[in-house]
Amino acid sequence: MVENRAIPSEADLIDTADVFGLLADPGRLRILAILRGGExxxxxxxxxxxxxxxxxxxxxxxxxxxxxxxxRRQGRMAFYELAxxxxxxxxxxxxxxxxxxxxxxxxxRDSRRLDPERLDPERLDPEGLDPERLAPPR
Length: 138
Prior knowledge:
51% of the residues lie in helices and 10% in strands. It has helices at residues 10-23, 26-35, 42-49, 53-65, 85-101, 109-113, 131-134; strands spanning 40-41, 69-74, 77-82. Helix 2 (26-35) crosses helix 3.
């Protein structure tokens, strides 16, 4: 029997869905993963995330609007950090789930197969990766 717990309000469910929607973008997740290590400015986030400063600023604007990150201004510089421990916990839980679940989305199976960090070391060539040998059968 299902436990009879209070269901969140419709507004709370919509807001939660919006936050999960924000987290569904790999670029924004990359920024949040970087911010797990501490605060950073747009230039630092952009360089470490491999994104343009414009794309990074846009992502931060969305994340701020949903209170996922917060900003601290020092003169003309803006430093971003995770908004609170709940955001960190959500990221940590999601990343831990992926690490232990070996989740493999069918659409990403081929790209993960060539990711050296996910490969079985016994399948690696001594000279490096041989993409032909590791490619999925045709």
